[in-house]
Amino acid sequence: MYKRLLVAVDVSEQSYKTLDHAVAIAEKFDSELTLLAVVPKMITFSPYDYHAFARVRTEQKAFYQEALTDAEANVRSKHADLNVSTILMEGRPSATIVNVSEKEGCDMIIMGSRGMGGITGWVLGSTSHRVAASCKKPVMIIK
Fold first, then answer.
1. At what angle do helices 13-29 and 50-78 cross, to 10 degrees?
2. In this structure, what are the phi and psi dihedrals at residue 141, rounded to the nearest 5 degrees?
3. How many CB atoms lie within 10 A of CB 7?
4. Which residues of 92-112 are buried (b: 16+ CB within 10 A; e: fewer)?
5. 45 in Cβ contact with 97 (< 8 Å)
6. What is the pTM of this model?
7. Which alpha helices (DSSP H) does the chain contain, by range?
């Protein structure tokens, strides 16, 4: 039923909980896991701070790559028989997740929800809600 799962990985603790659920589903359906980390685009307001911006951007990419590498190592150490691949992308997280799921031919997206409600959730929006609203594939949101 679910031959290819896309798992959105970020730097939160929720990401590890999400990964546990994804692995359980992958084992049940003998699915491939594609782990995706999306480095959010940053906006700089001053063209004079380009070098500082570039340095921060490089550090941010390395941070997300490390989270992705750790997630992959975690899965492989406990479930060596699973087929796992990783993708690191830059962009708007919700749109990138949906686009990668289409491009990779994934059957389902699994992602966490940080549970930001109230004003914070309203102002910042929810990546998981945006993905669920814009995607035609099944989306599992782990709380």
1. 40
2. -110, 120
3. 30
4. ebbebbbebbeeeebbbbbbb
5. no
6. 0.88
7. 13-29, 50-78, 93-103, 118-124, 127-134
Structure confidence at residue 48 (pLDDT): 66
Count Cβ atoms below 10 Å from residue 84 Cβ, excluding itself: 19
Q: Residue 104 carries which side chain, given as an amino acid letter?
A: E
Non-local (6+) Cβ contacts of 5 within 8 A are: 22, 25, 26, 31, 32, 33, 34, 106, 107, 108, 109, 110
User: Which domains does the chain possess?
Assistant: 4-142 (3.40.50.620)
In angstroms, the CA 129 to CA 5 distance is: 18
pLDDT in tens, the chain (143 residues): 899 999 999 878 888 899 999 999 999 999 999 999 999 887 666 666 777 778 888 999 999 999 999 999 999 999 999 999 999 999 999 999 999 999 999 999 999 986 554 444 444 458 888 999 999 999 999 98
> Nearest Cα to 6, choosing from 109, 141, 87?
109
